Amino acid sequence: MGVRPVLVYTLLRVLLFVVTGGLLLLLGLSNPFVLIVASFVISGVVSYVLLSKQRDAMSERISNRINRPKPQSD
Prior knowledge:
Layout: H1 5-26, H2 32-50, H3 52-67
Helix pairs in contact: 1-2, 1-3
């Protein structure tokens, strides 16, 4: 079956957030609140562009799960 698309997408989003925060920290951004907000916004934009394939796979997986017929209980 492979690795679950939801897990892959979530881990990649977290990784992007951490990497973005690290880069901003290296660039001299030291205010924790601004660092977190800027990391969240920048990583969100980057993930929208870079993770579209993973987002589509996750969406398809969730949609298939929701639309799966329920087992009949007698």
